[in-house]
Amino acid sequence: MKERFKTVLLTLLVAASLAQSYLLIYRLPGTGSTAVSSAGYVRTDEMGEQHSVEDTLYPDRMIIHMGEDRHTIFYPDSAFYKLIYARVQARDFAAFQVQPVSGEDWGKIAAENPGIELSFGTGLPVPLLQKKMRLSADAAFETADIDRIWIYTGSGEEKPRAFFFSSNGKDVYEAKQLDLTVQDVLQHVAFGEDWTPYTPLKKHTLYVPSKPIVLAEAVLETDAFTSDQMQRNLFADPAVTRNIHEQDGSEIYTDSKRSLQIEDDGRWMTYTDPAAVPAVRADATESVLSAVDFVNQHGGWNGTYRAELPIREKKSNADSDIGVRFQQYYGSLPILGSGTVRYGYMSLILQQGTVSFYERSLLETPEAAQPGPQYTLSGGQDLIDRITKVEEVHGLKVTNLYPAYTPRMNGTTLRLVPGWVAVLSDDSAVTFN
């Protein structure tokens, strides 16, 4: 009996010793461990939140067409937006057939037929959309980038029609098989009946509210990630980095290969890694997946973001590079950073899945803001006149219009001021109330 007890005790001691050795060598997450990725990056701190790629894939707005040329718009985070998008995600779409966009009068369809139109901004590759929606894609459809999904029901038709618009502006794919009913579509459309009416302009490419919109400023107290934290997250051995002070007040940290520049009084960072990568055609889907993983490992997410791609950054002209931009949102509205306050987005350039450029804000903010002053955003004819004035002053057409926040800093306080954003044909933006 005594020998058996000694054997059990010895076994427990050996097991405890092995466990202790394992912890000393590898250490558990959150105990000061240093994890080095295959790309030579290091992550030491738990900083921002972790997100999946699915968290960044959603429409920038939802246009509800109610027939008789009546329309309204739901923006992200609103109750009806979330309800409709969840229902659409649960439906199956299959048997896609391509046709030219010019084959239909889409303005007439929007005016006469009840339906829902989901806008995906610059567009998403079908493989990314499949992470959010149940799409049975054939070889032709799965190579498309989709910037709009339009589901409507025509007068006297027994089932609705669903169209997926290519961001090339030429092609549209119709899902000949879908498990939505006419009643489903009409129920979704009914949510917009008591909402703010929107008037279509320019053959239904712009929509303006029929009356002014009142929005409150959001006020947030800020903290910030430190340069030491970012060094430990971006350099394999922070001990060998050198610090260079620039005349404009910025600081550059480099290990002779990569560089980290801290600007705007510690509120903004730019990271570059000029590692040479073979110049082969980049894949947008893999680039977005890699970009999300990179942010998770190197800083995390300081808010809610929506993926925008592909973009061609001025920092890179190579066809093998893909730029991925994550637009930050507060509530239902995007945050449009200005020249005076850089805030509201993350931007990455990837070469074959390796990040060569990464810029972002270092500010941390709470989830809930304090309400600030209310702003009345123009609507109706006043807003139409403002759009016309913007076009006259800049000599360019307004191609998009949406409400957004402009960030302003007062010490450590971040103010998000609401206003209209008019996007011009050269992709520049003008803000006004």
TrEMBL record:
Where do the Regulatory protein YycH domain residues begin and end? 3-421
A Pfam family this protein belongs to? YycH
Origin organism is Saccharibacillus alkalitolerans
What name appears for this protein in its UniProt entry?
Regulatory protein YycH domain-containing protein
Superkingdom as given in the UniProt entry? Bacteria
